[in-house]
Amino acid sequence: MTAKLFSPYTIKGVTLKNRIVMSPMCMYSSHNEDGHVENWHRTHYTSRAVGQVGLIIVEATSVTPQGRISPRDLGIWSDEHIKGLRELVGLVKEQGAKTGIQLAHAGRKAVLEGEIIAPSALAFNETMKTPKEMTKSDIDETVEAFKNGALRTAKAGFDVIELHGAHGYLINEFLSPLSNKRSDEYGGSAENRYRLLREVIEAVKTVWNGPLFVRISAHDYHEEGLSVEDYITFGNWMKEQGVDLIDVSSGAVVPAHFHVYPGYQVKYSETIKNGADIPTGAVGLITSGVHAEEILQNDRADLVFLARELLRDPYWPRTAAKELGVSIEGPKQYERGWV
Questions:
Q1: Where along the chain do its domains lie?
Q2: Beta strands 303-306 and 280-283: pairing type?
Q3: pTM of the model
Q4: N- or C-end of the chain: fewer Cβ atoms within 10 A?
């Protein structure tokens, strides 16, 4: 028996050996606050490739120094970052996994010294810094930074780019009316609030021909915010622009309390997949092989993204295979203990 979880998936000429994706998770481990890859990153990501994850997406990697979530985030704002990222890609690919990177800008959720920027001069909460409202020049520079980040991604040899449009970071801040109070062409209507993401996608695609994912927060969990139905509209626009897959998460654009349970975001993935007729990835408290298989078998998503569960178990693909009663090939060096 071959479970769908362990069937290959091809997207724009890149074939993943299975449907298991390591979700981008910040490691806050660039020691000198310079955004460079460290030994921790090499160990962390390569071990999941050894564990037979199909696609490994490197954590939120900032396209500008000002756009880091923390001073110890990975960066891709300089050509000096390419060497370390290329080495990381080589280590992961050597173990049979495909590689992705999440290009990001933290916007008003940057916890840094100095000025931070956002669509509007609204702090995330009462304890965080109030950002400067971005000028048109700031927006143009940010779009160019995403383009340059994509160019460096290609030079480093990654297979996939994911744009971080979720969790209350800059792109998400522009999309949501809760954080975007602008009165110019970047605020107000849905078309205007989508404009920054549209321009980033257009710019990235001038230098990147590979698979392009966008991570979204499909629900703001606020009565005046966005819901999954709004993201069907955005999803259609992304599809028209050539986005290949939407990675469907939720929340965090404003402080909000909501109930979480295994697979609590899968319904959003399913709704966008069907409503916009675009491939999606499901993420959120997916911990068992049986659950992941159910999501795929019922066409609720095309890929399953795992986060915390892969922190707990770098060999989760083997765990899931045993649970599903299927056999998957492991590293030759581990044959004695893999079965």
A1: 19-328
A2: parallel
A3: 0.97
A4: N
